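ping. complex inputs:
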Amino acid sequence: MPAKRHTVFRSASGALYHEELFGTEGFAGMSSLVYHLYPPTRVKERSQPYSVRPQIAIEDNLQARSYLTFDAPPVADYINSRKTLFVNNDMSIAVAAPSASMNDYFFKNADADEMIFVHMGSGTLRTMYGNITFAYGDYLIIPRGTVYRFQFDTGHNKLLIVESNGPIETPARYRNNYGQYLEHSPFCERDFRMPEQMETHDEQGDFLINIKKRGLIYPYVYETHPFDVVGWDGCSYPYAFSIFNFEPITGRIHMPPPIHQTFQGRNFVICSFVPRLYDYHPDAIPAPYHHSNVDSDELLYYVDGDFMSRNNIKKGQITLHPGGLPHGPHPGAIERSIGKKETKEFAVMIDPFNPVKITADAMSMEVKDYYQSWLLAGKKEEPVI
Ligand SMILES: [Fe+2]
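pong. complex structure:
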């Protein structure tokens, strides 16, 4: 790295390195300065784009619904494996079961920051900043525009993906004016994993980057390897955070859902539900009260835990409780929760503040008549958060 930014920086052979400012919000947001062996602009070919826009099945929804996302079949190709289920103007939610690594192309999402929650599988996320090894329970946050490639350890992978048209950040209330995490935050700097083991690829040839923009995939062939970086610094880069490092906030009586918040985007939040002690007031009711989330849809993705011992919730199942209707525990759940000491559940909740549209892919995974499930007193046993 040169002592000063935007100054002469040469290799041992005398060639200039090529500096790139990488940011996602003009010149005002987080950015990094990256030094390449070659200019990041050498396009050899571009092919016709093709559409991966989801087909919308339901534009307007006021019905509680549920989906079995593990029904999504494994697909070898990473881009084709991504099945978008819900979408609005701020974000979209997809699941993916990629069964092969990305060996013959790179991917760049030009529209959206990505949050990729790893429900099954492990491997390495490769980027120009370096590599991030990942495993079950990791959230991977990838700023939009970042070129990346997934290398999976096996063919058995299940991913939950949020695409955000604005930056994905940690909640502002957990950071001080300087950006440091405060003492009451459920995580701190040590819990985040940056890219490591940066690899400098001095290679020329044909390097295919499939670029996603406005629901189209544009195949671009570059002359040089996109990971040709010799050094970088700054504040824009992909990172990982494990749900197992989320420290739950508990109380004597029921704490509201914001204590689970992990990330914020433009008009949505992402929350982590993790094993924790239940409320410890002697008369506390650990089950949540009924609530009317009038100004927010609420999507809960079940990961693991004691809900597995119950009859009607499976791993990878999503419930959608639309804004405008009250929802709450299933029959019997409130009484059952009294006196319980702890929960072992893992779940990821996504609350979009604008209603989501439901895609045809989601409909193919839908659990029928979920909206009537509160009628069946004593017959069903499901957790509701
Ligand atoms: Fe809720």
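Residues 174 and 183 are 8 Å apart (CA to CA).
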